[in-house]
Amino acid sequence: MVEWKEIIPGEVWWSDAFLEPDTYMSLMKRLRSDSRKQIDGRLRPHAIGNTYYHYDLIKTDVRKDDALVEEVFTKLNSLIESLGDDPVDYRAPLNQLQFFAKCFSPDSRYGLHTENRTMFGKYVFVNYLTSEDTGELVFPDEDSANRYLAEHEDNRRGWEETLETLNGEGTGVRYAGHLSLKPRKNCCVVFTTGIAHWVNPVVDSRNSLPRASLTGWINATDSYMNWEKKVAVAY
Q1: Phi, psi of 166, rounded to the nearest 5 degrees
Q2: How far, in Å, CA of 230 to CA of 21, rounded?
Q3: 80's torsion region: left (phi>0), alpha (psi -120 to 50) or beta?
Q4: What is the C-alpha to C-alpha distance for residues 19 and 40, in angstroms, rounded to an integer?
Q5: Is pLDDT above 80 for 231?
Q6: β partners of residue 223
Q7: What kind and span of H or E run contains 55?
Q8: The whole model's pTM is what?
Q9: Can you identify the CATH homologous superfamily of domain 5-232?
Q10: What are the φ/ψ torsions at residue 79 (nearest 5 degrees)?
Q11: For the chain, what are the domain ranges?
Q12: Which helix (H) or strand (E) covers residue 158, if one does?
């Protein structure tokens, strides 16, 4: 059974060995052979705030792999049930936000951002499949978030929109750090939506799938996808 460590109280948890070794080997073989689709936030509508994101979606349909789904979500459920939350019903069809595979390219990063629980649910997970010296997931305190914005002025307006959106919903944004986590092979991080974070670019990766991961907002409903479909035509 997977062991979880709480690294920011009530906000961030970490496991050093997430997938079983045979599961990991089989999964990586499939992911390396599959095609990818570039996801560029500059070309897509934004429900929360117009912050930059860019990654490659790996087209392996992990949601149809029943054994993988059961293993991943049984382990995730062990954490969230211990925190007093209901388990995810992974035997029902999972939607696109709940479970997918991705990796980075030279243009990939995420600007300072967060999501709201209305569309994305309470928890998000990232099961890193490669180790990287860069591509850190950063949870800032408010001071380091302001320093980041001073260095990335292109992110400022989108972050202000995010604050306006979440303040308007009455939830606001939480600053949980400062904490920086490097991707580590077969480690998994779970954190709550609504906390500020960014992801740095990956520089000089030795991996064929840089910063590859299984990931998802495990409690997400169809509300975001339905919203995206409605605004996509106008966008």
Answers
A1: -75, -35
A2: 42
A3: alpha
A4: 29
A5: no
A6: none
A7: strand 53-58
A8: 0.95
A9: q2cbj1_9rhob like domain (2.60.120.620)
A10: -75, -55
A11: 5-232
A12: helix 156-168
